Amino acid sequence: MTFEFNPDRNEVLNSLPEPQQPPIEPAIKTLPEQWRLRDLLIFILFIPFALFAANMIAFIGYAVLAPVLHWAGPIPKLQTNVVFLLILQLIFYAFLLAYIFLFVKLYYKTPFLSTLKWKKMPGHNIVRYLLGGAALSLVVMVIPPLLPEKKSFPLEKMFDSTSSAYAIAAFAIIIAPFMEELLFRGLLFAFIEKHGGLTFAIVSTALLFAGLHVFEYWGAWNNVVMILIVGMTFSIVRGLTGSLTPSFLLHLAYNGTLMLMLYFQTQLFHRLPANSLIFH
Fold first, then answer.
1. Angstrom distance (rounded) from CA 234 to CA 249
2. How many CB atoms lie under 10 A from the CB of residue 118?
3. What is the pTM for the complete model shown?
């Protein structure tokens, strides 16, 4: 048997198109499910650690800096020092903010603010919510004096000096609105809404928000009721708009207006302690 070489046939075979391989699709990475109850539990367990670490840093920092800066006063008295307590709370908030940021960015792998429903809004809406927060603060100033109970409470006693008043005002305007809204109407609202629904998220975050402030108004239950109403207002706005930005703007204007009115009613924080209409 003989085989003949046919160059024409080889040319035809070479001219045929090669069979194409189906394109290899890149593997799609599945992101972790957001707002699981396990994630909430881990965050709750982190809170005592953050509080302990904040206390350690604050007290050690004071012990180190006191001799250098010639600060007077024993360490046990720091528990009643307003400025020190605000610094301690600031450190505590820094731990919580770092945890939430890293959790969202590294674990969920999603943008930080947008994941927590922080959304941009037009300028006229910003003005509207700021005015709404100012109006809400005026309501809070007017209603408590009409209620029967008018006891003093811990928060007003913290305004014991001009420096304390300025420190509280700065914290209330610069730090508290962002951090409290991030925690209550951002993180906790997202967890509760997923597992309990919108209505339950609104009510529960308002109750938790009031619970955070109840010790500040301990004994003056008329003010506790007002804080619950304020928290409910913030949570309702968060639920209706689906955004964290409006409740933050309301909170910012609410705190800012209260502090501004207190500033003028106490003659630029010089007539203290403060027992003005803002608290009574």
1. 10
2. 17
3. 0.85
